Inverse folding.
């Protein structure tokens, strides 16, 4: 498990980095999801966005653990 990420000379917790990246991805996908008719069928669209955020956060963390450790750490 990667515990810290080194970005531009700053060490930050890996969970924070993946959470910020997941939030950016959800924000980018939000416009696409609102154009789909699936969005109208959801009971709470914001709950679906929250679920998408947690799925992306988990997926990014799992993907980072499978990549070579030198890619994100110093």
């Amino acid at each position: 498990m990667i515990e810290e990420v080194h970005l531009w000379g700053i060490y930050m917790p890996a969970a924070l980095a993946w959470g910020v990246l997941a939030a950016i991805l959800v924000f980018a996908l939000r416009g696409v999801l609102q154009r789909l008719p699936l969005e109208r069928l959801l009971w709470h669209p914001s709950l679906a966005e929250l679920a998408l955020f947690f799925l992306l956060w988990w997926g990014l963390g799992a993907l980072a653990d499978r990549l070579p450790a030198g890619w994100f750490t110093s």
Q: What stands out?
A: The radius of gyration is 15 Å. The mean pLDDT is 83.
